[in-house]
Design goal:
The chain is mainly β. The chain is built from no helices and 11 strands.
């Protein structure tokens, strides 16, 4: 199985930037793509970004309007989420996830087999 550990969350002010990291270990040979999601209390888990390991093709929802960028470092087995111009509504627990089967529906949580424990991001006004 794939093990994922998120880091980089914390407190931020509106307008700040943060970069989240997701360290990947385990059966990385079967890992096709990585995704970032977030979940605020009482809300559905929201898709943020995805990237494939082989081609680094990326996928984003239109709602983020270019504020978030996903990237990966194959040598370090690490995926990043760069978050710019943070807003209070970005406050949530942020999760990375791994997909082991080829897919194009990156926004669906069911596509991902493995999830990290999450890292809290809190943005104040």
């Amino acid at each position: 199985q794939v093990q994922l550990v998120e880091s980089g969350g914390g407190l931020a002010q509106a307008g700040d930037s943060l970069r989240l990291s997701c360290a990947v270990s385990g059966r990385t040979f079967s890992n096709y793509a990585m995704g970032w999601f977030r979940q605020a209390p009482g809300k559905e888990r929201e898709f943020l970004a995805a990237i494939t390991w082989s081609s680094s093709s990326t996928s984003y929802p239109g709602s983020l309007k270019g504020r978030f960028t996903i990237s990966r470092d194959n040598a370090k087995n690490t995926v990043y989420l760069q978050m710019n111009n943070l807003k209070p509504e970005d406050t949530a627990v942020y999760y990375c996830a791994a997909a082991t089967l080829p897919t194009v529906t990156f926004d669906l949580p069911g596509v991902y087999c493995c999830w990290g424990q999450g890292t809290q991001v809190t943005v104040s006004s």
